[in-house]
Structures are given as C-alpha cells and as structure tokens.
Design goal:
Layout (H helix, E strand, L loop, with lengths): L1 E5 L5 H11 L6 E7 L5 H8 L4 E3 L8 H15 L3 E4 L8 H6 L4 E5 L11 H8 L3 E8 L9 E8 L6 H24 L3 E4 L2 E4 L4
The structure holds 5-O-phosphono-beta-D-ribofuranosylamine (GRF).
5-O-phosphono-beta-D-ribofuranosylamine binds next to α1, β5 and α6.
C-alpha cells in the first residue's frame, strides 16, 4: 500500500510510522512526505529515512486552491493509496476531499467529538475533564468530524497543563497511529456510514 504523509511541524507521529516501517512491522510503501512548511522538522526526518519529500510553501501560491492542485497532482504521480495527515496544520478544502479517491486519515489529540480544532489539550485542561485521549479518524469535509477508526483514553490530572497532557497523549498517539495504518493496510476496516467496523482475526 502506497502511503504519503503530510506534516507541518516536528513530525513525531511521522517518526513513529517511519520507525515501524523500518523495523518491518509496518510493511507499507512509504512513497512520500509533503509539507506546507519548507523548514518542517518532519521533512528532515523523512530525508533521513530516505523517503521522497516535497514542500508546498503557502507563499509560493496565489491561493489555497493553487497549492492544493499541486499537492493533488503530486499525490497522483506518486500513486498514493492512503494519505496520512500527521500534524498537518492546513485544513483540506471540500474540493480536495472530493477529488481524492483514496482514504485520508488524521490523528487528533482528544477523544472526539470532544475538543475538535486547535489546542485540544488546552481545551481539555481548561474544561476540567478527568479523561482525554486521542483519536484516529477518516477525514471528511468537516473539522475533525470524520468516522472514528481508533481511540484511546488518557487520564488528565489536576496538576496537568497543556504541555504535560500533550506529552502523555503523544505517547499513545505514537502507538495507535501505526496501528490504524496497519489495520487499513491489512483490509481489516469496513465502513458503514459513520461507523468503522474493525474485523478481528478470531
Ligand atoms: C499531534 O498532537 C497530533 O495529534 C496533532 O498534531 C500534533 C502533531 O505532532 N494533529 P507531531 O508533529 O506528529 O509531533
């Protein structure tokens, strides 16, 4: 399965995928890593792993449509079969979603549908929830609203701040994102409307 990752920042989730790919537990074809930021650390991680990279800096384009057209063409050239968003900080347009005939997945640092959007960990701390977590979901035309593939809870302690909670959640993200990709790659996932059914081996 040909996988492309889009990332804007430090790329620790990308690294968790690279690590499992390199140790053989995620036998995907890692065909590319793209970013809207030329200096994204994610691009360096990909280069170190020998993966093709490409930047699509916002300033190079007149508007989002032009940037997305370039990304879509690149993805088509690569023959992408699964597009993985890993800290990609630009919302994909409805047009982009409609034009892509491959699944797109994202990871979000809360138990959706709670705390969608930016700074989900801060939202959780400010709200005072005792439990948050992370969610891998298919991307649809809304904001963090697509069908949920995997979720795992993470406790929130009274002394937590945004950073301490983010760190605790991140460790779990690094476990469930490769797991979700593995399930998709192995054809273990069936979609029934909003529901994602995971087929077990038993
Ligand atoms: C993660 O918390 C992820 O859930 C969110 O953005 C962050 C990306 O972190 N979508 P990294 O770049 O993968 O380290």
């Amino acid at each position: 399965m040909k996988v492309v990752v889009l990332a804007s920042g430090r790329g620790s989730n990308l690294q968790s995928l690279i690590d499992e790919w390199q140790n053989g537990s995620l036998p995907i074809e890692f065909v590319g890593v793209g970013s809207d930021k030329v200096k994204a650390h994610a691009l360096i991680r990909a280069e170190n792993a020998g993966i093709v990279t490409r930047a699509f800096p916002r300033d190079n384009y007149q508007d989002r449509e032009a940037q997305e057209t370039d990304i879509l063409n690149w993805l088509e050239e690569l023959g992408v079969e699964l597009l993985v968003l890993a800290g990609y900080m630009r919302v994909l347009s409805q047009e982009f979603i409609r034009k892509s005939d491959y699944p797109i997945i994202n990871i979000h640092p809360s138990l959706l549908p709670a705390f969608p959007g930016l700074r989900a960990q801060k939202q959780a701390v400010d709200y005072g929830v005792k439990m948050s977590g992370c969610t891998v979901h298919f991307v649809d035309e809304g904001m963090d609203s697509g069908p949920i593939i995997l979720q795992e809870p993470v406790p929130v302690y009274s002394e937590d701040n945004e950073q301490t909670l983010a760190q605790r959640i991140l460790r779990v993200e690094h476990k469930i994102y490769p797991e979700a990709v593995r399930l998709i790659m192995n054809g273990k996932i069936k979609r029934e409307g909003r529901k994602v059914i995971i087929q077990t081996d038993s």
